[in-house]
Amino acid sequence: xxxxxxxxxxxxxxxxxxxxxxxxxxxxxxxxxxxxxxxxxxxxxxxxxxxxxxxxxxxxxxxxxxxxxxxxxxxxxxxxxxxxxxxxxxxxxxxxxxxxxxxxxxxx
Length: 108
Known about the structure:
Elements: E1 6-12, E2 16-21, E3 26-30, H1 31-36, E4 64-70, E5 74-79, E6 87-89, H2 90-95, H3 100-107
Antiparallel strand pairs: 1-2, 2-3, 4-5, 5-6
């Protein structure tokens, strides 16, 4: 849902990031998947949209070393693989929520 804002963001057991949204929804992102979904210019070609980073190139044990809010619209994550240029907008995070309900909505 666009326009939703996080009320809590937390790293969970070194394997995932959990976001609780202001509408009560909870999104749980596995760290490797979220790292791979980074949409910064280092990870995705700005003109073609082609992803530079292969999924196999993301370590299974990657985890955030720090997280910070960017204004009122995004989350910046510094990753244990040294990547720190990605900014994940709240709309982007909510749109890619991997829960079964959100996955089913996207499939429609």
